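> tool_call: predict_assembly(chains=two)
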Amino acid sequence: MIGASLGAAAYERASEISAILAVANPVGDRRLARLSSRPDVVLALSGIGISFGGVKALSDVDLEVEVGEIRAVIGPNGAGKSSLINIISGLYHADRGRIAIGGQSFSRVPASRLARLGVARTFQNLALFGGLSVRNNIACGRVHTRRASFVEHIAGLPRARSEDAGIAEKTDQIVAFLHLESVADRLVATLPYGLQKRVELARALVAEPKLLLLDEPMAGLTATEKAEMAGFVRAARDRHGVTIILIEHDIGVVMGLSDRVAVLDYGRKIADGTPAEVRADPAVIRAYIGTAEGENGEDIR
Amino acid sequence: MAVQALDAARLPVDWAKLVQKLALATALFVVAYGVVPAYASGYLVEAILLPFLALSLAAVGLNLLTGYCGQLSLGSSAFMAVGAFGAYNFNLRVEGLPLAVTMILAGISAAGFGVVFGLPSLRLRGFYLAVSTLAAQFFGQWALTKFGWFSNDNPSGVISAPHLAVAGLSLDSATGRYLLSVTTVMVLTALVWRLVNSATGRNFIAVRDNETAARVIGVPVLRTKLLAFAISSFIIGIAGVLWAFTYLRTVEPAGFNLDRSFQILFIIIIGGLASIRGAFLGAAFIVVLPLFLSRLGAFLFGGLFDSGVLDMSQRIVLGALIIIFLIAEPSGLSALFDRLKRRIGSRSS
């Protein structure tokens, strides 16, 4: 009896180990371990793959992001840019690969702990709280720092009040930084699109993240608004020291703004380097410009 | 210190508005505690004010859940029933329990019931959640009828209001019950007002407006939803106590049926979602509408307009109004009220 159950246990153990070995990627794991132990690497992706109903949206993507850089990820429509940002923020779970954020390694990033991990993001299609004022939308960005319970809030106890005061102060600073004073008390849903985009940036910045993920922050903006937004993104890095991942369709903006650029095409990373290197890369010219210029008339130079 | 200075700079005190608010609050107190008890007829109190107050409170509770937190519920009537039968049993089985404690315990029972039936909200949304809250409705009514213990083995499951007293002062008269009701409603409404203007209230709105974004910025979505169910059910439960003890005085489980849940939902749709004032406007409308229709019907059609016709016409008018409000004014009477106030303000200035 005992022998049989021991045998069964050993068999289960062995099959578990072989299952782990089958999935594990020792080379990638070692690379991730090396990268995530480096203090200057904020985020490291290793061998990320995800498919939706048989369509491979991403396969074997590596990416590392260093402290204080503006890292752009570009690619034609459907290249997997948004999938990548959704995997980093835990909204999608990768089928393969690991993600290291600030030294902690995950196969699935817990979205509900994202803010406490020091990561904030914006969304490609606005994701604001339409029923709240601009100021309250921004204040929500610091909700992860709150500890007071609803009873303390109703009773107006000291902890709730000092939290409110602290968050109001931070909110005011961001409102001033992004020039939103004149609309701060308006319902966010009544603002024009360009300003709503800016409020979303404010809500992400107020969390004082180490890593900021921007999902097409320029999409749908006018040329003036794009220039303004680029200025804000650069200022956020320069003044607050935040590391930025920028997903963008508009190549002109990316080339001027970012320190390093990764290019995705059909779910694979085809190039990675400084804007100048990427611009000269024949694979990029073939894959990206060949299609993008034909469709959208965008010019990489 | 610095923060206070900043706040003061940002919000220059608007004295005119402050005086106006104080005057309004004083007027409310004078009417609630002076004019109504002194001058209101027994009919006005018994047939209009008591149901109005209980329904308003239930609507405030549902508005917290549906209007602010975006979780559609059709179980309000069951939460009222749990409150009413809970208060009856606490009062019956615990000797000398003060009325306030009885009501709070009843509210807590309803909150527990609400949390259990709020669990599906962690997975379901909108219409599907509403259907799952129907389970609370049917289960509540079934359990209260099936187990005689809840109604102290009354053969038809009927419970009667106990003797109501606070600090030895009897509140059994119409005026006494009114005072109990109006005080409860004012206190709870004030607490809800504090809640919806706090960080917790903003979490409710965040979950309603964009659940994904709320999760990513660190709003504890699951906890927030369950909290909304708990607080909302607590308030609706106490509204159930008022409904049973101050208004009807004797109720059976069938009195808390699906129709009542719909009635409370209609109140917040007509009054205005995510508006405390809307809950009161909607409740006033729902209470006064049948009286108004019966007067109008009697005036226009005389004897032809009997209670059957009244019931039908009431349903038709209510149904039509819901459709009109949903299309033309989704923010309800509360928004209409604001617009009216602005128009009068702009005309007088």
